Fold:
Amino acid sequence: MQKAAYVRMYADSKGESHFEDVEVEMQPVDFAPPAAPLNIVPLFPAVQTLLVGESSGWGGDVPHPAPQRQVFITTQGEFEVTVSDGEVRRFPVGSVLLLEDTTGKGHSTRIIGDSEAVVFGVTLGE
Structure:
């Protein structure tokens, strides 16, 4: 079976933010007949899609929680996130980040390098 992976960022019961590596198993689905089946795994109901962009001078270094549950897929540039437990991770092009730390101490974000970063964002339902 094919597998896919993403990073989940969440707040625990004490308000501390953490990263978690998530791996999901994909199943063949007759998705676009008459084409052959594709491997798919349903994830989350979506509410809205958006493009989010910013340059290296953006002030995301102030710790903040995510404004709502969302998924970010990096399409341009690279950014770095520090969660409140101190762990730091980078998200280059192709990275998938599930933001669920909507309460608590939150995280800080920094654009890497001199170029702009762009993410394709998906706001999620409850």
In short: The chain has a mean pLDDT of 95. Residues 3-124 form a domain with the Jelly Rolls fold (CATH 2.60.120.10). Residues 1 and 86 are 35 Å apart (CA to CA).
